């Protein structure tokens, strides 16, 4: 591995890294919104909603993410909906990971002590207010560790966007390696750059966990 090669390849990989971050953030936001909706549907007393959400979650978890990306990118346009590869990658990853986010949120909500909910009802709080003021704040703290893990997984799986020609970091690395045959240099740089993107996410979630942990202890005193 020569420094001249690293210097030459880094700007190209960095451009790909920007796309990787954009895909990750887009998919994370989409999966969070859809996941919360699915979680609330699964916990709904309306049986039809709960069964529909359970079916969707099970189907999404049972399909490989790459197949979902291919379906959105290659099949959806045949139905008259045109999507760019970049848009398809965000939608595909967001939908795929919404199933995992739904399970994260469902577990967090179900972990809340039922006594707190009953107490809130006894003082006249309505269901929406209970969800916003009692359940969700505690559920967020509980779901932070799995949510952080899911965020890192989305970042790593954003590399699958390369299979539908998105010029993200992995795709950039593949093109450089194919044209220069510097496989060791390229893929070592690629691994280190993914690690550099993942570590801030991991550390950020750890700090949030400690913050919410201190807040919970302070509230209990």
From TrEMBL:
Subcellular location: Cell inner membrane; Cell membrane
Transmembrane segments: 12-41, 48-73, 186-205
GO biological process terms on file: amino acid transport
Domain ABC transmembrane type-1: 17-203
Topology of the protein relative to the lipid bilayer: Multi-pass membrane protein
Highest taxon listed in the record's lineage: Bacteria
Classification via SUPFAM superfamilies: MetI-like
Primary location group: membrane
InterPro entries assigned to the protein according to its UniProt record, in alphabetical order: AA_ABC_transptr_permease_3TM, ArtM/GltK/GlnP/TcyL/YhdX-like, MetI-like, MetI-like_sf
Pfam families (alphabetical): BPD_transp_1
GO cellular component: ATP-binding cassette (ABC) transporter complex
GO molecular function, one term: transmembrane transporter activity
Keyword line: Amino-acid transport, Cell membrane, Membrane, Transmembrane, Transmembrane helix, Transport
UniProt family annotation: Belongs to the binding-protein-dependent transport system permease family. HisMQ subfamily.
Protein name: Amino acid ABC transporter permease
Source organism (scientific name): Halomonas salipaludis
């Amino acid at each position: 591995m020569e420094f001249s090669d690293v210097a030459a390849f880094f700007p190209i990989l960095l451009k790909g890294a920007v796309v990787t971050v954009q895909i990750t953030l887009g998919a994370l936001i989409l999966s969070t919104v859809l996941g919360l909706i699915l979680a609330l549907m699964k916990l709904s007393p309306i049986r039809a909603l709960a069964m529909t959400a359970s079916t969707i979650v099970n189907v999404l978890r049972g399909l490989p993410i790459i197949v979902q990306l291919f379906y959105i990118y290659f099949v959806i346009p045949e139905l008259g909906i045109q999507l760019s590869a970049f848009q398809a990658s965000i939608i595909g990853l967001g939908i795929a990971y919404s199933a995992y986010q739904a399970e994260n949120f469902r577990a967090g909500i179900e972990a809340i002590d039922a006594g707190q909910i009953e107490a809130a009802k006894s003082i006249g709080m309505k269901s929406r207010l209970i969800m916003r003021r009692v359940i969700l704040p505690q559920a967020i703290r509980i779901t932070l560790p799995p949510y952080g893990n899911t965020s890192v997984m989305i970042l790593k799986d954003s590399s699958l966007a390369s299979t539908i020609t998105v010029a993200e970091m992995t795709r950039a690395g593949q093109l450089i390696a194919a044209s220069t045959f510097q496989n060791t240099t390229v893929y070592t740089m690629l691994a280190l750059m993914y690690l550099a993107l993942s570590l801030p996410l991991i550390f950020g979630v750890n700090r949030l966990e400690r913050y919410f942990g201190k807040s919970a202890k302070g509230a209990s005193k």
